[in-house]
Amino acid sequence: MNRLFARLSTLHRSVPFSLRLQLAVWYTMAFAALLLLTGAVFYQYLERSLEASVDTDLQIRAQQIASSLVLQHGSVALSNVRTTLPGFGTTNPAQGVPLADVNRGALVRLLDAHARLLGETPAFRALPAPAASVTQPLQGTPWQGTILSTGGQEVRLYSRTLTAGGKPVAVIQVGESLATLHALLHQLVAALFVVGFLVLLACAVGSYWLAGRSFAPIQRLAETARKIKAGDLSQRVPVPPVRDEVQYLAVTLNEMLHSLDQSFSRQRRFVADASHELRTPVTVIRNKAEVALLRPRSQDDYCTVLHSIHMETERLSHLISDLLALAHGDEGLACFERETVHLDRLVESTAAHAEGLAQERGIRLSVQASQPVTLIGDEARLIQVMMNLLDNAIRYTHSGGQVQVSLQATASQAQLVVRDAGIGIAPEHLPHIFERFYRADQARTHTGGSGTGLGLSIVEWIVRMHNGSVGVSSQIGCGSSFTVTLPLLPPAQKARRALGSDAS
Ligand SMILES: Nc1ncnc2c1ncn2[C@@H]1O[C@H](COP(=O)(O)OP(=O)(O)O)[C@@H](O)[C@H]1O
Ligand SMILES: [Mg+2]
Description:
Blueprint: H1 2-14, H2 19-68, E1 70-72, E2 75-77, H3 79-84, E3 107-112, E4 117-120, H4 132-138, E5 143-148, E6 154-164, E7 167-177, H5 179-228, H6 245-293, H7 299-331, E8 339-342, H8 343-360, E9 364-368, E10 374-377, H9 379-395, E11 402-409, E12 413-420, H10 441-447, H11 455-465, E13 469-475, E14 479-487, H12 491-503
Parallel strand pairs: 9-11
Antiparallel strand pairs: 1-2, 3-4, 3-7, 5-6, 6-7, 8-10, 11-12, 12-14, 13-14
Helix pairs in contact: 2-5, 6-7, 7-11, 8-9, 9-11
The structure holds adenosine-5'-diphosphate (ADP) and magnesium ion.
Adenosine-5'-diphosphate is lined by residues 388, 392-393, 396, 420, 422-425, 433, 438-440, 443, 451-457, 480.
């Protein structure tokens, strides 16, 4: 855990920006992109609609001019136009074209049906109107477009015909400089930039502040967790009342602390129990050796002492190998073989092995395992399961009693039952007998304390590693029955395995 915190603090040092700052930068960048996009769309839309309104204006003006024109003998009389448009007329090229500005005065030009100039306003002289703006209306379709003046300014031009008796008699061209419109749009862009910058600034400050507020509970959690790393795993981080991600994090942290606390105290208890169990035989051996060495003794006395020392060392080595097996199991280092195990044969042979011990104690041992049962597992460890259960059954049964072993199988599982008519287990001990070092009191008195209390823990672990389960039912004074259930291979898999082994 300390290493985890060290890693976190190096990480914290190696990242130059806090998460809060990073979030604020991301928010602001995303908002800036959004603002830019909205601004661009808004600008485009506004430009289009302003241009459309200029076009409508031009069409109305052309219509007004058309209605003010009077036809005399089939040709257009310009007197009305001249009064409303100052300077309107034809230019004599010999007099030279005066300097014209499309922004000064109206932009109007009139041509006859043969595209000859009838008259134009002074400002129009700066406008090189394209030929299509005359030919297209004469063919029946009004023309409109944006053209550049000689001064390089954009001008919107609209061109239509005046008809008499269904025939075109004149072409009316009206224009308007887009300079004012562009100036307006530029002003708008400048204003948008200023407002956008202010909004972005507010967004940056706001998101930094908001991110700070959202991270405050996490900061508090981290501070509490930092205090806990000092070693007191019974502490818990405060769980905020609001049901959000921080509450989920706090609950997860607390669950993690709880399971760490439990596994640490389990580990501590295991070490304490193990040292206690190891100390007893070692003390016995030392005492016996010390007493024997006090004075010279006969050959028989030495033999007796050595015999009892041998028994204690035997118990000690059993205890050590049990402890090692469980420790390996805890660390996940124990590897289980996956081989075909003939459980019926295994039960028979283990029972035959235990027969000697049973006879020695005057106990009748009977086995019922006629049905062949095969499964995939670790044979040596399954023998250990059988031996531990048989050892208990024989150990906790009075002389003259009976122990029965039976093996049955269904299509999916095998059931091994070891039943004895022994001392039984009191109901208050039953839930604990699979715990490490747990021994019922009567077991200690009955066997003179020779057990270690690890046998059933090992049985439970091995069976669990085979995906099986172990259960017990017992009545004090009547006996106990241990049932081990192990899953078998599905028939299809079995057939495949058989084929595979045939082929090999
Ligand atoms: N067949 C049994 N009959 C009565 N008590 C039993 C039997 N098997 C187990 N026990 C009880 O369960 C306890 C734990 O068993 P085990 O883990 O094998 O430890 P040990 O046999 O070394 O005491 C025993 O101390 C005993 O109290
Ligand atoms: Mg035992």
